[in-house]
Every structure is written in C-alpha cells, then in structure tokens.
Amino acid sequence: MLSACLALLIATMTLGVAIGSVPVSPAQVWHVVIAGIAGHPPNTVAGTIIWQIRLPRVLLAAVVGAALTTAGSVVQVLVRNALADPFLLGVSSGASVGATTVLLLGAFASLGVWAISVGSVLGALAAMAAVFLVSRTGSSLSPTQLILCGVVMSALFESVTSFLIFRGNPQATQAVLFWLLGSFGLASWNQLPIPALALAAAMIYLLAQGRALNAMAMGAEPAASLGVDVHRLRRNLFIVTSLMAGVAVAVSGIIGFVGLVVPHIVRLVVGSDHRRVLPTGVLFGAGFMVLGDLLARTIVAPQEMPIGVITAFIGAPTLIVLIRRRPYLYGATQ
Amino acid sequence: MSLRLDELSVDIGSRRIVAGINLAVGDREFAGLVGPNGSGKSTILKAIYRVHRPSAGQVLLDGTDLLSLDHKATARRIAVVTQESASEFDFTVREMVMIGRTPHKRSFERDTDADHQLVDHAMERVGCEQLASRRFNTLSGGEKQLVLVARALAQQADHLILDEPTNHLDIHNQVEILEVVAGLGVTVLAALHDLSLASLFCNAIHVLRAGQLVAAGAPATVLTPDTILRAYGADVLVIEHPDTGTPHLIPRRIQPASHDPRAGESFPDSPAQLTPST
Predict the structure, then answer these.
(1) Which of A74, A302, B37, B109 could join B105 in a cystine, given CB atoms 3.0 to 4.6 angstroms apart?
(2) What is the pLDDT of residue B261?
(3) How many domains does chain A have?
(4) Does residue B103 belong to the interface with chain A, where contact is any CB pair within 8 Å?
(5) Whole-angstrom Cα distance, residue A11 to residue A7?
(6) Yes or no, beta carbons of B88 and A76 under 8 Å apart
(7) How crowded is the C-beta side of A122, counted as CA atoms within 13 Å?
C-alpha cells in the first residue's frame, strides 16, 4: 500500500516537473535530477528550468502538502472533530497579519526575500501562543475551548488583516490578496530545508505517538485509562501541528482544504489507525498538492491561478461526496 | 490484586465532590458502587483511573499509592469500561481491541503475533470474534459494550473499573455484559444504576449519597428498604430473588395507582382514561 502510494507520488512529481510552458520528457527530467543530485546540473535551458525552477517548486509543494495533511490529521484527533483543519487554531490568520504587515508596512525590509516568511512565522507563533494561553484551564487544554478560542482569535486576527488592507495602498493590497490565496510561484531551493526538517521532525514525534493518537481518538478519558498522559500529549500535539502549519504558511501562503480533505480521503482508504494514516497522509498530501500546483500554473497559462482556489474547487466537492457516502460517521442516525 | 481507597476526597473546581471515602475491594471481588445521580460514583472511579487527582487521601493498588506509578504502569493494572461514546473515527473492531495493548507498548513497537493472539483471545472470550472486521461505529449498543470489554481484556489488567456499562442496554445485554465481566476472574469495581442487577452480580455493595459512603457490605445486608430510602429517598419493596436469594428491588409509586387496573387491559383511547380521577 505505502509503496504503491510512493510510486504514485514519484510519478506525479515527475509529471509536475515535466509539464509547463516548455514541456520536457520524463526521461529528461530524471536525467537532470540525477545529474543535479551528483552536483552537476546540466547548463542547458531545459536543465536550468528543471533544476532551478520546477524541481524546487514541486518539492516545496510536496513538503507543504504533506505538512498540512499531517497537521490536519492530528488536529482532528486533538479536538476530536472531523471538521477541524490545521488553520482552525488561528495559525493562518496570525500568519496573515504578519505577512500583511510585511507587504503593506514594509516590516523586516532588511531581510529581503525572507521578510514575508519571517513575518508570517512570527504571526503564526504569536497566534499560537495567544490561542494556547486563552484556551488553557490550569494545565489542560479542552477540545471545545481550543476550538472556540481558535475561532475567536482567528476572527480577531482576520479583522486586523482587513484593517491593514483597508489602510494600505491598492498595489500592495493586490500582493496581499495573492499571498492570502497561496502560491508556490516564488519557490527556490533555499526555501526547502526548514519546512522539510520541520516535517521530518514532526513525523518522527507523531509516529512515536501512533498508539497514543489512536487512544486519544477514543476521547480524553478512555485515553487516560489506556495509560496516555493526556495533558502532555495535547500540549505537544498543539505545538507540533501549529509549528508545521505555521512553517507551511510561511513559504506558500494560506492553502485551504488540503489539511481538511486529504486526511478524510486517507482514512477512507486505510482506516483510522494513525500508524497507517500518518505515513499514507504524507504521500497523499504531497501528491494532492503537486497536482494542485500543476493545475494552478497550467489551467490559465501563461497566468497563474492562486492554488487556494484550485484546492477549494477540488476539495469541497470531494468532502461532500465523502460525507454522503459514510453518513453514520458524520452524525446521521442511520 | 486489591484496590483500596483511603480517606479519598476529590475536588472539581473548588467544589468537593466526594469526601473521606474508605473502600476496599479484595482479590477477584466484584464490588458495586451505587448511589443516586450526582452522588459522586463517576468521580470516585475517575480518581482511580487518573482523570481526577485526589485532593486528599490515596488510591492504593496492592498497598502502593497509585500516584507513584506512571500512567502506563497504572493502565497495565487497571482497565476501564465506560458507557460507549460516539467516535468521529472509524476503527474496526479488531483495531479497537488492539488499542487495549497501548500501555504495554513502547514508541514505534509494532503489533506482534503475541498481541494478535491476545486480541483474538479477548474477542473470543466475550464472544465478539465474528464482529472483528466490522466498523465499530456500525455496531449496536450491546455489541459496542462487549467490544469495549474485549479491549479491557486485551489490556491484561487485573483490575477492571466499570462506569455504568449497562446503561441504555436491553435486559439481555445487561445480564450478558455483567456475566462476562464476572467470569473474568479479575478484581472489579462497578458503578451501577440497576440495584437488582447489582445485587445479582456483586459480592459487596457500597452505597454513596452526596459524596459520602453511607453503607457497605453484602447485598443482602445493604440493599434494605431503609438504606434505599436513606440514600435515594425512594420507597421500595425488597423481595428475595427466587433463584439466588439475593435482594430484588421493586419500585413503588409515589401516588397510589389511581386508575382501575382493568383499564390497562385495553390501550387507553379516550382522554378521560388518561386523566387521573380523584
């Protein structure tokens, strides 16, 4: 199962690199990739397009898709709600405030191309800390309080973003709107390491907690009776998912629906055991995002569609179909 | 294999829910915890399975303070079955029972053949092996409860805590669940609502009222009309169960039955029969 998904993902990524305004053959793609890994990317036009532009873009899309899917799967367990997505807890709206501040007010201008990433990570971290602090009762985080505080704080941050846009100049506002809908258009090699490392570290931690996540899916009290330290696990899951979502948003803007829909598709295919859901989710999420990005840059070529539009158009109908196929899982009585 | 509560008090928020509870369950004993709604049954049980922390007193497992054990070690000794709750996640029955192995496994440790055998054995013991590949969410209430007992079995704990496990079950399933539990040979502490059922299965019964124990002992000595009136404020008749000789409770109406008993022979169809005559 996993190896089939992996093969599918590699095929999708090859396609993602091959298709574009200058089409290249899959054989050529792999030729360049192998040469590039060996340290000598060919100095031809195709070589430059593949190695400098398309490959980092496809890889970044894959990493972000995997991170959002993983964060989504875990947030759904954390708040025990299948409708949760990684942005529920305020990360994305906090990041928006940060990015908008950079784009409209020129904050962190000295950081050059990194300014938006730094701004949005700081915004995401601030939002995360705020939600954590307001939803905490003693040492515990209750799911309902987390959801409510997340929703309320998100609304607050979004209105801050709206205020900044309202005060900003129209040209910069265009840039903000484009960022808010997400894009991999600015992908480059040096954007890759941080999200990739964050994803890898999070996956190692989460896979170690695979059984505990299954127990948490039963609810807090059953999990406690199964030997899970519920308070600690909730706190760690909150931090891990917020960081993953925050880093993903920093490099690609806000790409909705992936973290909500892909975990559902994965559970439909492999069941609910998180020791299977998490690794499969990484592969599905990566593939979904690579395909989404491929559509985003080809569907209205030579212009680019914001990828958030694509993921919503694919994600919304998919989720509706899933909900209607398994009514008993979504609260219908029969 | 004994469980003892020593002067246990639990606060939720700033309110004391149960106070000064002394209670012991001996090796392989089936003890019942009864009392009116809100008398603190669940709170006591949750202190035992470490959802609540005692504000005073101790929970002792074979004489060891429970708080000196880590969470996993506790779960290897104490398994819990509560009322089944709806899950957003679609586990199969086999996966559900396998979750019982959680406290025995380290990070990254896979399910071994031994785990699968334990899971099979647990399902056979409660008689739910034919449900193994079904989705848990599609089961009936009685089937779900059996699966949760199987999960507790796979947990291999020598103590079992039950929190109203027979709620919402039909009479067959109520008896079946308790019969399975009684046959396990583990030390059981069960919060139960149905006093006649408790009397049929328990060696000892502890009666709570407003967070304090008011009576304890064998069912025949505890389940008297006097104690029930004191604990619940309910007027009951107690008769002997013809099979077992254990007390069986018969509720009585607060108002004397006002309708002619013969009126019950046909379904009341006129409003006049529904209004009590004076």
Answers:
(1) B109
(2) 58
(3) 1
(4) yes
(5) 6
(6) yes
(7) 14
Tell whether A53 lies on the interface with B, counting CB pairs under 8 A: no
**ipTM of the prediction:** 0.86
Chain B hits for A82, CB-CB cut-off 8 Å, are 88-89
Domain housing A209: 2-327
Q: What is the pLDDT of residues B183-242, one digit of tens each?
A: 998 999 999 999 999 999 999 999 999 999 999 999 999 999 999 999 999 999 999 999
Q: In one letter, which amino acid is A208?
A: A
Chain B CB within 8 Å of residue A44 CB: no
Burial B163-173 (b: 16+ CB within 10 A, else e): bbbbbebeeeb
For residue A333, being part of any structural domain is answered with no
CA A149 to chain centre: 21
Contacts of B71 in chain A (CB under 8 A): 224, 227-229
**Is residue A57 assigned to a domain?**
yes
Task: State whether residue B190 is helix, strand or coil.
Answer: strand
- Our measurement of the distance from residue B267's CA atom to the centroid of its chain's CA atoms, rounded to an integer in Å, reads 37
CATH number, residue A61: 1.10.3470.10
Question: For residue A306, how many C-alpha atoms fall within 13 Å in the half-sphere facing its CB?
Answer: 17
What distance in Å separates the CA atoms of residue B268 and residue A259, rounded to the nearest whole number?
Answer: 57
Burial (0-12, 13-18, 19+ Cβ within 10 Å), A245: buried
Q: Pick the residue of A73, A79, A226 with the most B CBs within 10 A to test the interface with B by mutation.
A: A226
pLDDT per residue over A222-261, tens digit each?
Answer: 999 999 999 899 989 988 998 898 889 888 888 988 999 9
3-state helix/strand/coil string of A141-185? ECHHHHHHHHHHHHHHHHHHHHHHHHHCCHHHHHHHHHHHHCCCC
Measuring CA to CA, which residue among B25, B89, B197 is closest to residue A214? B89
Over 80: is that where the pLDDT of A329 sits? no
User: Rounded distance, CA B123 to CA B133, Å?
Assistant: 12
Kindly state whether B165 is in contact with chain A, defined as any CB-CB distance less than 8 angstroms.
no
Chain B CB contacts of A233 below 8 Å? none
Of A77, A219, A227, the CB nearest to B103: A227
Residue B56 to residues A221, A224, B9, B22, B26: CA-CA distances in angstroms? 21, 21, 5, 12, 22
Cβ A227–B91 below 8 Å, yes or no? Answer: no
Domain for residue A208, yes or no?
yes
Pair of tokens at residue A24? 């290249």
Q: Does residue A306 belong to any structural domain of this protein?
A: yes
Please give the model's pTM, rounded to 2 decimal places: 0.88
User: Closest Cα of chain B to A183: distance in Å?
Assistant: 32
Q: Which residues of B touch A220 (CB under 8 A)?
A: 51
